[in-house]
Amino acid sequence: MAGVGVSGAGGSGDSGVGGGAQVAGAGGGPAVVAASLRNAAAVADWLAPRVAAGATVALVPAGERWPDGSLRPAAEDLWGAGAVLAGLPATLLADPVATSPEARVAVAAWRSVADRLPAELAACAGGRELADLGFADDVAVAAQVGASGVVPLLVDGEFRPAPVM
């Protein structure tokens, strides 16, 4: 899962969002939404008008933990962030100054697996871990790109469906 922080032009604060997001504050703080492969298009649609209006967006692939508790990158979360970014209008991604190298890498990573996502998701460390625990069906569900139109927005410490613009 990728956490997405959105701060309006002149908004206050940065958003650091991991697997579990924290409220970034009311009254001008960044909006925090949760994205996955299943709702990447919906999140991109929600972000597009905000980015066009000058909002700053930070996508943070949540990552996982190794058995020893240390952090490990999660390819599936990078793919999710890339899927969100790839869903934005090309004009919003065209400026290499406004788009970070990390964002471009996420988009490239997503595009490199998009046509064979179910197999790649099953083969990545997170997919193998879930399958080993008996949750292979969950991996198949996670591979259903675009299956959800809900954009979870963090409000008062809880994720709620974001209002439609």
From TrEMBL:
Protein name: Probable 2-phosphosulfolactate phosphatase
Organism of origin: Nocardioides marmotae
GO molecular function: 2-phosphosulfolactate phosphatase activity; magnesium ion binding
Pfam families: 2-ph_phosp
